Amino acid sequence: MNIAKKIADFARYQRTLRELNNLDNRQLHDLGITKGDIKSIARGTYVA
Q1: Which of 23, 30, 36, 46 is the most interior residue, by most CB within 10 Å?
Q2: pLDDT tens per residue across span 13-23
Q3: pLDDT of 26 above 80
Q4: Residue 24's CB: how many other CB atoms inside 10 A?
Q5: How far, in Å, CA of 6 to CA of 1, rounded?
Q6: DSSP string computed for the chain
Q7: Closest alpha carbon to 24 in 13, 12, 33, 15
Q8: Cα–Cα dist 2/16, whole Å
Q9: Residues near 32 by beta carbon (within 8 Å), at least 6 away in sequence
């Protein structure tokens, strides 16, 4: 994996974290996730 891909992946991870953390509990519930799920979702390792 080259450095440009790693940087892009990290930027995508951070953007996903930021966007999900900005949602309130009701919005997260509507999506079927909790605050505790956010990191694994951002990493792409979330299993429902």
Answers
A1: 23
A2: 999 999 999 99
A3: yes
A4: 9
A5: 7
A6: --HHHHHHHHHHHHHHHHHHHTS-HHHHHHHT--GGGHHHHHHT----
A7: 33
A8: 21
A9: 48
CB atoms within 10 A of CB 42: 19
Cβ atoms of 16 and 41 within 8 Å: the answer is yes
Tokens found for residue 35:
């605050």
**Residues in Cβ contact with 15 at an 8 Å cutoff, skipping those fewer than 6 apart:** none
Is the C-alpha dihedral spanning 44, 15, 22, 26 positive or negative? Answer: negative
Residue scoring higher pLDDT (4 or 46): 4
